[in-house]
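Practice set, problem 2.
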Amino acid sequence: MEGIKDKVAIVGMGCSQFGELWEKSEEDLIVEAVYEAYEDAGIDPKDIQAAWLGNVRTAMRGSALAIPLKLEFIPISRVENQCCSGTDAFRNACYAVAAGVYDIVLVVGFEKLKDAGPERMTARYNYPDIFPQVPIGLAAQEFALKGTRYFHDYKLSFEDGKRMLSKIAVKNHHNGMMSPKAQFHKEITIEQAMKAPMIASPLGLFDACGVSDGAAAAIITRTDMATNFRDDYVLVKGIGLVSGAKQAALQSDVDLIHFEENVRAAEMAYREAGITDPLKQLGLAELHDCFTITEAITCEDLGFCPRGKIKEYVDAGVFELDGELGVNTDGGLKCFGHPLGASGIRMIYELYKQMQYKAGPRQRKKVRLGLTHNLGGTTGAYSVMVAIFGQRD
């Protein structure tokens, strides 16, 4: 099966400020991100042949982009796949370009959560008959169960497990301090994270990402056209997307210490990109750290470290900014918050800047290949997308 590898290039990107942006509308955020991408790619709005929108709001449609951007009479598709919405929109756009249907397309992910209200959101999944042990509806509770189970299965004391998660939070806050567009710019200590108010044990205040507004955008084209725009374009190397079908419901016990969807999506992306040793081959990874335990388990799922060994790797600083594999070098969801449709494109924005050596004080030295990861849904029915990006040869 022929894949996407090296057929599509990113030639422009933009990202709005993330945060509690009460003074800005959705349209403001879209324009802010997209016009940065236009300028970065050196193109005009009239050059866009088609567009894709990733968003989780109810009843959104193509006009959400067409109206603020004045995109007259071109195809615009809205993609909703929970927390994968932005990267899934990117995936759809990549396949259209790779197929030769369009030459230059726009992808935008955005969300306005702070003043939206629950009635405007579609993410309302509840399967009490299938997963009575998982209190769906409150994400902190669900992921707290994973933390408790992880500590139990790998024989970590509460103190040791909590300290491991706190180190992840400290790392991401340190990186976020150097990200001008992040929601939170504050260093924290391990002691602060350990003693923070509890949300759902073992997860405290600093173990959870924030709720924020934001938008991000990408301009993509065929690789053979990329040098018409810039020399430091970034290539799409592999994409893996899977959706769970409640397979865990067929078992007598639900495994809460890994996400099978992570494993399967990574296998797809690695196969396409030719990744056999992700820890050695990847330079950085933007992971879906909605909670610190999610980042910890995902590192194992994606093969960054063996099962049950994440604490050892965290203690050794393997995933820190200057470590062997920088994880969430911009601060991740922990510091940007999680405007659902925007997060995946924001992750790509960080890889894009790193691969152009434009990441400022958080710049990594080894950035030939990088990975983004999104996870959304609920136990046994997650959607996960993993994508691999690389510098041009």
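Problem 2, part (b): a different protein.
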Amino acid sequence: MKKRHLYIILCIGVLYAGCNIPKAVQKQENKAMPEQYDVAADTTNTALVKWQEFFTDPYLCRLIDTALKDNQELKITLQEIEMAKNEVMAKKGELLPSVGYGAGAGIDKPGRYTSQGAGDASTEMTPGKKVPDYLGDFKIGLEADWEADIWHKLHNAKDAEISRYLATVEGKNFVLTNLIAEIASSYYELLALDYQLSIVKQNIGLQQNALAIVKVQKQAARANELAVQKFEAEVKGTQSREFELLQEIKETENRINFLLARYPQEIPREKSDFLSLPLTPVSAGVPSQLLANRPDIRQAELELAASRLDVKVARAQFYPSFNISAMLGFNAFNPTYLVKFPESLIASLAGDLAGPLINKSAIKAQYLSANARQLQAVYNYERSILNGYIRVANQLSNISNLQKTYGQKVKQVEALLKSVEISDALYKAARADYFEVLMTQRDALEARLDLADIKKGQLSAVVSMYKELGGGWQ
């Protein structure tokens, strides 16, 4: 009859708790991802290529390899993985009974006019000897406690931490992808600056030759002081640009050194013609492949899975929990009696069933917060997918437009270089003034510098495309 009453009470408690759980806010499914980008669909995906195969420059590969060993941000992320792994270990431990040991010693004197004191006063420990006023208390034993996971609260909490652990691993992969891309982009920027510096130095030489010619012409009364000052100002302006480029080179080198976790030093790099560097072909594949390749999307998906489990854990707080506790040990008023068996043996076994009944505001607040975090995770997952798709689409367009821009800029540079030769010849023949020579040289310099920037943009766009597709971490 008692078991029946207990069962009825348990059912009533569970039903009462279940009826008072706030309703969770549901989110409708978002629109499906497009089946392809603006280009023709192709299942070939560059993200599957390892970075050692994607980058062919040996100097760049050595820089990336060093960064993967020494970069501080990557090391910080690895420690986050270790912390997440420890959280999984802790949650697994909560599923098992906890067993501890303890020992204690004390002394106790109850008041004479208490039930215990009055009883002790009339109790003989041995014939003719009463219980002393000050009585020792010595104890040693084991204690165990275990919560039966009836509602899978502990299992869901463990699974949530496993998902978060896997999410930190994806976070590490995302750091890898960004790190490799940043080093490669900075390296190509460094090569572009080297090339621009060589152009500026060449242009300084041309301008100094022109200045020397103008000075000779002035002495021959074929030019005036204004022309000399104009040419000399142009030389000084180009020389100042040389120092600006040297500063940019130094800062770019140190940016790479920072990523490699080392103090400033020269970056070894390719010294061949920058404009002749080949562009690695990239294939975007289909948009659905982003879900498997991009670490940030995979991380958001795992965080979403963890948040859904958190809601289940918070919901289980409304239901009663069942705990079992046990104790086994020895207890005596004299330490010499602790070894006497079974007189000093103490043991207990108890089961507790407890659950919230009135004033569940705190539990409701935790449940609603868990549901709100789940919705946040849903929106973050959707945003990650949308962000990945748009970034890839932007880079596809960028690569195409840069290729067209580069072709036109090459033709412009060729035309301007010819015009420099023509203007010099016409000036020497007194058929063009110095202003035309200056403007032609300036336009040619700017066009060649722009061409280097466009080439750098092409190389960086290929690197960005590789990163946006989720390449580099495999």
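Answer key, part (b): The chain is about 60% helix and 10% strand. Residues 361-428 form the longest helix (68 residues).
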